[in-house]
Amino acid sequence: MTPQPAPSVRRYDLDWIRVGAFALLILYHVGLVYGVYDWHVHSAHTFEWMREAVLVTNPWRLTLLFLVSGAALRFMTLRRTPREVARARFERLFPPLVFGALILVPIQSWIEARDKANWPGGLDGYLAWMGREFSWSGLADGVPVNHLWFVVYIAAYSAVTILLWRRPGLIERIGDGLERLLRGRRLLVVPILYLIAIRITLFPFFGLTNNLPVDWYNHFLSLGAFVFGFAVVGRESIWRGLEDYRWVAVGLAAVALPIMMLQVWHPGGRAFLGVPKAIVYGVDQWAVIAAILGFGSRHLRDRSSRVLTYLTQATFPLYLAHQTVLVVAVWVIRPAQLPAPLEAVSLIAVTFLGSLGLYEIVRRIDPIRPLWGLKPLDGRPWPLDLRAWREDGARYRRRRGLLAVGVAAPVLALAVVLIAAAAYPGFDNATQFLSELGGATAQAPIIFNAGVFAAGVMAGLAGIGFGLAVYALSGARIAGAVTAAVFVLAGAGLSLSTLYPWPDPRHMIINLGLGIQLAPVLLVWGLSRRRDLPRLKLFLVVTFVVMAALTLFTKHLVFPGTVNPSNVGWWERAYAIVLVCWVGVAAWVLERKLRDPDPDATAAAPTGALVE
User: For residues 464 and 406, what is the distance between their CA atoms, to the nearest angstrom?
Assistant: First the structure.
């Protein structure tokens, strides 16, 4: 398909609406802390009237977000082909979803387990919870995503909508049909009738589950809103109608909301099979959405600002972070037994400011930006520019391929440890060494040994890439060779140690890798002529200092007894994380630098090696 011409004017009203809806979502979740509905954690204060108060936003907030998200996807299609749009959606949604499911959501689930099931606290309790959640039995029950269900649905609905868009003329025919159908007062009446119909016929049987395969009422509601936004965002007659009927919509919502609250409060609200309640619910649902869209189109369509630009970028990271920040805040603040108003204000402030603080941190760290739904600062694909790597004549192709292995090696190592620990019932992170995951007492030692063997081979290959990268960027032959040597030795020690599982004395061949502690300093030495890598150099120096400090502690040269048999496992975990993760970060930075080095910053780089 040939992409359509780009629009001449951006719809800033949709940006404002999206930002406002997500802000209301944070307030809504704070309200659930005080509500009577089942939620992850609750305050010591609960209020029955929250049952009715949540109706102020509950019927329409998420439906509005899906509608605006569909409209935003439509704007993406104006410059891209279907394949490009699908790739962009995947790059934007998949990394945050995986990151959130592995890191953000387990924190919430663990605190909820502590609150409701007296799960053990401390780092041991958290790791035990992680082992349970990501064990074979835990994975068989599904991976909890909590508030990230919205990301799952956006991804699924984007896929469905892109498939519809691939059918020539289908979306245009849908838009034409909606434009004819929604003329005049029917712009209010028809959507209300649709919402009432699905509320009466589907909701009693399926409810709202946020479970994608069986959430049929939600699909008719939210997917319908998503496709509606995609199809009509460019239909000016519909937007003019929303502007014209915005005050009528306000009047309908003002009448429907108190009636809906009364139906929830009064025991007779479910009379006549709940049909009257469904009717009022549908009226309120579309009336509020139509009013917001109408007023936004009339007053905010051309209203851009620096604040809007900032919040538009921050919204997705804030969404990812806010519920974890809120659950932690409740757990920390609740024991203080503050009065309910002061506690609520504190939770709102901590959630907003804590989420913004996280955003301010992650947006400045390029390697982790895509994990929070942000594009890399240099605009290249993440984590690696594979297309550029495959191009004929690509710069430093083989060296960049070796560095790509260096990016993957830490990910493999961490994954192997987590899986092996989950397959080792009763593994004690405080007192046991990681090598025991592949030892005689492990039930499935092959997981750890095979994974670590592969990680060792990858570390050696990555070391060769580091050495060649140093030579290419600065011409430092000796520093590059020494760097490669310590990595190759470390990789060999790591791989060979798995052939002699613990407690075989030959397992100690792993000590061949001790020299890798010097690798960060060697890289700084080799890249000393480069003036364009100050943050990487600082990162490497800090890494070396941390590893040196941990080494001193374990040898009891500082604060003797700090590391002892009761906590040596935690020392080893900290050391392993530092030792492994820095390799991936450094490899990622150098791979990108080799892709497009700054010629003004290159000093004494060897000639004739630009393409290999």
Answer: 10
The answer to pTM > 0.70 is yes
Report which DSSP code applies to 373: T
pLDDT category at 342 given cuts 50, 70, 90 is very high
- Paired with 611 in beta bridges are 395
How far out from the chain centre does Cα 452 lie?
A: 27
The length of the chain, given as a count of residues: 612
Unique residue bearing structure tokens 């990681």: 434
d(CA 341, CA 3): 53
Instruction: Render 258-299 in DSSP notation, one character per residue.
Output: HHHHHHHHSGGGGTGGGHHHHHHHHHHHHHHHHHHHHHHHHH
- Taking residue 438's Cβ as centre, other Cβ atoms within 10 Å add up to 25
Asked whether the beta carbons of 601 and 532 are under 8 A apart, the reply is yes
* Average pLDDT for 483-498: 86
CB hemisphere CA count around 516 (13 angstroms): 26
**Is the torsion defined by CA of 458, 464, 466, 472 positive or negative?**
negative
* Distance (Å, whole) CA 197 – CA 191: 10
pLDDT digits (tens, 9 = 90+) for 136-174: 677 767 778 889 999 999 999 999 999 999 998 899 999
Q: What is the pLDDT of residues 562-578, one digit of tens each?
A: 677 777 777 777 778 88
Closest by Cα among 232, 249, 250, 241 to 183 = 241
Amino acid at 498: T
